[in-house]
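Form 7-S
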Amino acid sequence: MKRFAYVRPSTLDEALAAGARPGAAYLAGGTNLLDLMKTGARRPDVVVDITRLPDLSAVTVLEDGDVRVGALVRNATLAADPAFARAYPAIAEALLSGASGQLRNMATLGGNLLQETRCAYFADPASACNRRRPGTGCDARGGENRLHAVLGWSEACIATHPSDLCVPLAAHDAVVEIVGPAGAREVPFGEFHRLPGDEPQVTTALEPGEIVAAVRLPGHGKAFAPHARYLKVRERTSYAFAVVSAAAMLRLDRGRIAEARIALGGVAARPWRAAAAEAALVGEVADDAAFHRAGELALAEARPSGENAFKIELGRRAVARVLRLAAAGTPDFAPALPASPFASTTGVALHG
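Output:
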């Protein structure tokens, strides 16, 4: 590992000053950054530990009903918050689907937004990777790419975003609160993560030195709570990233769909919102035929980036299945590691 300077500021202003230094990287839970530093994929000159900053670790209900989640709130803490889990059950289910209990105890909300792709070529400094070193090429294009992107990819990069949490956040139209040397600003969640295009090294809307302060969830999203689910399809049931994942939230009116939200994970360099599928569901009877059509629309623009054509059909089926689960109703309880045969009574209640 490269030698680096370590700074642990006690105020936000001190953190921003340190983060503005060339080669600086912010450290929170460290579940992603430290792994990349060990392999050499990330080589910061300065590591700025922000875990002691005040006011970034709270879950707050605002006067307008929105819910503000600080960037340093731990995944395990958020999933286990009874009021939050009842209001946003798909998010709680996604949190419990990620990694392991030990990692959820360390991982943070902000870190989830900023975690890097799990593309093996990005993590290997000996491989060509435009995302890690612009202009060097993309070894994934001719390599092992069965788990890579089928939506929004470019010739420069076919990596996917690995987060579970970010998928229902996208479906909820969350807002990312950012602070930096130039002050505070907000970015709609759908604009926070960038598709690769010709600049795959630019992965988010963050400017140099900026930091994610919080994510704000619209209060009206609580109306989806009775019919909200997250589905993760993975190659093993524990400690695995999604091959494809999907979040679905419905508002039903006498058996018909009044409003729908759908987002996919594991298919692109950002969580993928299926707007056309959502629109097509409005007014339809909540049945298998409608859900199948929604799956087709959600993947209508998909194309293989390598040996991964199977992910397109898998994505269609995942959308149809998660819609079916959502229509059936949010369950009373979400176990840790949902859908795993090793799930236990450890988990969270989704109904009050």
